[in-house]
What we know:
Distance between the termini: 14 Å
Shape: elongated
Number of strands: 3
Order of helices and strands: HEHHEEHH
Largest sheet: 3 strands, antiparallel
Radius of gyration: 18 Å
Low-confidence stretches: none
Structural class: mainly alpha
Mean pLDDT: 87
Strand order of the largest sheet: 1-3-2
Amino acid sequence: LIHIVEGSALESIADSQSVIKCRPKRFSSVQSAIDWAMKRKIIKNRSQAAITFPGQMRQLGSECFEWRTDLEMTFPFWKGWFQGLSANFLSVPVTGKLLLVGG
């Protein structure tokens, strides 16, 4: 199970970085950021986005919002977060391991 997660994560890095590079840096409102993400099918549930997006945005002026975190600055670290995940998990010295992930 971990191997699949590690492998899938590593394979999707380039696509994820591409999406982040193409997203606008600023929006006129949080709602316009949600509309942009809905239109591009980055998110599928508007009501969930209404809960999560405000925390991801920072207001710069009365009609100017930007992403709170510059994810492009974290690109150099992405592979390191996932490489070796399976081996590290399997090397934990316990007799039984169970990892459940819900989706």
